[in-house]
Amino acid sequence: MMTQENNEKILILDFGSQYAQLIARRVRENNVFSEIVSHKTPAEQIKKINPKGIILSGGPASVYVKDAPQCDREIVQLGIPILGICYGMQLGCQMLGATVKPTPTREYGRTACSALERDNTLFKSIDKDIPVWMSHGDQVVELPGEFESLALTKNCPYAAVKHKKRPFYGVQFHPEVTHTLQGSQIIRNFLYEICGCTGTWAMHSYLEQAVRDIRSQVGDQRVVCGLSGGVDSAVAAALIYKAIGNHLSCIFVDNGLLRNYEAEEVVKTFKENFIVDLHAIDARDRFLQKLNGVTDPEKKRKIIGHEFIDVFKEEAGKISQIKFLAQGTLYPDVIESIPAHGGPTVTIKSHHNVGGLPAQLGFELVEPLRFLFKDEVRKIGEELGLPAELVWRHPFPGPGLSIRIIGEVTQPRLEVLRNADKIVIEEIRKAGLYRSIAQCFAVLLPLSTVGVMGDERSYENVIAIRAVETTDFMTADWCRIPHETLGAISNRIINEVKGVNRVVYDISTKPPSTIEWE
Ligand code: XMP
What we know:
alpha/beta, 9-stranded mixed sheet, binds xanthosine-5'-monophosphate
């Protein structure tokens, strides 16, 4: 478990907001560490954590209904600065005597907001009129005299407020979303001007702290880490290696479902950068045999998951005295499982990062990335000197290419898909688009369509190109890739990849489609 006690910290009490993660990110971008906790966290516990400030998130409920999520009322007595956002503002104001009601003129989306001319630390260095992002059907309608309005919109007289005696501030809009143009500055004002933060949070200090924590958790015991070829497991391994050197053993399973030269690159990277005990297992035939004749996507996933565990267990059994298993669990996986309305305890989802290793393996977990977002993991990767190629690699699913071949997975089909995928990535890189796209890849549709090549009729397969923009992979839009780049991809695939005579571009959003085709 990471300890960040020495650093200044902001606690975010989550009331079920879809934006809680965004709030955490905005705070961290301003060099202050932030952590999302349940809205039920007792004031006594918050006092012990001793944060510099508290942010009450938004949420889907109405504060005046029975069973609306509450927080410990004592938090307003702690003297710790509080910023309430949307639901958080309404709840804070209600706790301090204001009335909240449904409004006949709800505000959704971009709204013009005007700051009022008064001593207004929260709006320091902010233009008088700014566009803000609203999303509310309730609002504060009566504000007791101890409050002061700081900003208003056409339909909301209390778009931002402060309490005159207690360090409580509230904003009805969402400063954490980019549509609120100067929202990050408002959050910065709260952190620096109101909470007195100095901005000590930076990746290198996190890295040093992580190294200390790993050493104190692991001592001189052995850690095993499964490398998948992806960013998270690579950074986790590199970080643990920095902490404990050759007490780390890595297992890399080549399941035959990886991209072009991926297996070779992973092994090369780790052999070149670390003197690590690396076990690279060629299990390609095993996986392919098990997948023989299987067409159902979920069956494929299960087979690959089970096979991975078996291979991993066999190999780990050969390494003596392993006590810990390292996993590249990220912060979104941890906080997704904090229930806003749920039971009294915070349940942490067991994360299956590398193909799905179950807790029954009997190891203790080391999860040095469990407080980090993906872009922060990439920064740590760069600090640790991992190659940019690996650090910026798009995410790749555990079942690999098997879920990008519709239907049965065979060696010849894998070959076709690998060659097509290589071209997609090469052309996307050449066009300078790789880093701005969240994920892009080829999918093999093994249905035959008619074409003409030279004077010959052809009857061959289709390749679909998928490229998406997303930050959280829960929703995604298709990328508006320039036609020239799509043209170059299509041309090269049809000319260079035998067995393909048609290329199509997937223009579906998620939802209702998913990113992967299976
Ligand atoms: P979907 O297709 O659900 O994908 O929109 C969202 C993200 O999850 C990845 N994905 C998987 N990752 N095992 C994994 O490790 C899986 O079975 C799996 N299915 C989808 C997908 O690549 C995308 O990043």
